[in-house]
Amino acid sequence: MRRARLPLLALAVWLTAAPAWSQDQPDAAAADRRLRELEDQIKRSQTEHAEIKRKARAISDELGHIRADMVAAARAAQDSEELLSELEHQLEDLKTLEGDRAAALQRRSSQMTGVLTALERLAWRPTEALMAQPQTPAETVRSAILLRAAVPQIERSVHDLKDEIDVMSRLRADITNQRQRIGNTALRLDGEHKRLKELWDRKSTLQYAAIAETEASEQRVRQLAGEAQDLRELMQRLEEERQRRILEAAEKAAAEKAARDADLAARKAAHEAEIAAQKAARDAEIAAKKADKERKEREMAEARAAREAELRAQAQAREAEIAAQKAARVLENATREAAEAKPMVSEKPIASVQGKMVFPAKGSVVERFGQPNEVGVINKGISIATRKGAQIIATYDGQVAFAGPFRGYGLLLIIDHGEGYHTLLAGMARIDANVGQKLTAGEPVGIMGEDEAKPALYIELRRQGQPVNPLPWLTAQKSKGHG
């Protein structure tokens, strides 16, 4: 009777322990699902990051196309400015020629009027009256011979006078056509300026996201400009600022590598946690199936250990998820800032393009390097006389180091070409470039004033902070007096 009671007692004990084992099973399954969700979130984050990079490349390509369109539009605007100036010169020459022809025609007309008046008076006198004149027959014959000789000359003068009138008519027609061509060219120039304005607005819209980052850089540069005592100190501080940006880019690259290492560590920890959770669940299941009355306390202890291991796995999974998200954000920010902080370097070294850099504006050179200006100061650059509202372009690839007012220069634009070379442009009424912006050769950067009587663009080229003659670096242009 006692032996029959012992199996029943063991069965009751086992049934009492069964709910604890069944409760641990869902916890292990929940941990497994949580780990799988974490992996899915990490994959989605990587996909979103790749999509962001793809959109960034698309925007960069679009900006490249817009930059090429702006270069072509600026070149067309400058060609129209040059053609307009040439047409205006030709119109002045035609007006001068018209004045000379009109004066000559007036003199010939006055002469012909006197001669014809005399002939008209003679025509009204009869032949008999001539014979009754108080003169000898020889004088009468001489008068007839002279009159006969004068008539062909008068006829030739009339023919020449008619030719002069025809020339005047053609000159006036040429002047009318010239004015029409000037009007058409001016309309085309206005359309090209409007197209440039539209391209600039489009480019500004695409670059709007980068304005926040550039404002800090502009603030630092303006502060440097306010503290600089002369242009040499400004150039030195701008070079220090460029070196600082390069150092920051290197530090951000190191941070990016650290973020990748952290992401790998997080993945490894999540994988190890998953393996540990699965092992703990299997151990708990095997221990529960082999449970009996004598090993009840040991089985409960193992179940508690499995539960603690699962909790630790869940905590590690959550920490891995947070670390992965943080690493992805750090990686994205570091990549974007490193790309923006990296100074622009042209594919061709600037030393190899001497004599091939484009003129920033159409016009003639009025002040040369090394010559004293009107106040007696030796020029450190050159000055180009331009049209009112003329388009200004970048002479070569580079990055905007300074854009704004600077004492003694007015609005000043400094472009860093690398290798210690900088171009300085002053005299513009408007600058269409921002600090940190990358430029290509021929890209529009500003507009000359409309209110100035004789607008002139001042150009300096500096190597390691020292001014050099920019004319040998610039390619020859068709405008007269380019030097």
Number of strands: 11
Mean pLDDT: 77
Outline, from the CA principal axes? elongated
Largest sheet: 8 strands, antiparallel
- Spatial gap, N to C terminus: 127 Å
Low-pLDDT parts are: 11-18, 338-343, 478-483
The helicity comes to: 55-70%
Judged by helices, strands and strand pairing, the structural class is alpha+beta
Q: What percent strand?
A: 5-15%
Concise overview:
With 483 residues, the chain is an alpha+beta fold.
Structure description:
The chain is built from 6 helices and 11 strands. The chain is an alpha+beta fold and 483 residues long. The strands form 2 sheets. Strands 1, 2, 4, 5, 6, 8, 10 and 11 form an 8-stranded antiparallel sheet that branches. A 3-stranded antiparallel sheet has the order 3-9-7. The longest helix has 122 residues, at 2-123. Helix 4 packs antiparallel against helix 5. Strand 10 and strand 11 form a beta hairpin. The N and C termini lie far apart (127 Å).
Key attributes of the depicted protein:
6 helices; 483 residues; alpha+beta; elongated; eight-stranded antiparallel sheet; 11 strands
What is the strand and helix layout of this fold?
Elements: H1 2-123, H2 127-131, H3 137-206, H4 211-227, H5 231-289, H6 296-341, E1 364-367, E2 382-385, E3 391-393, E4 398-406, E5 410-418, E6 421-426, E7 430-431, E8 438-439, E9 444-447, E10 456-463, E11 466-468
Antiparallel strand pairs: 1-2, 2-10, 3-9, 4-5, 4-8, 5-6, 6-10, 7-9, 10-11
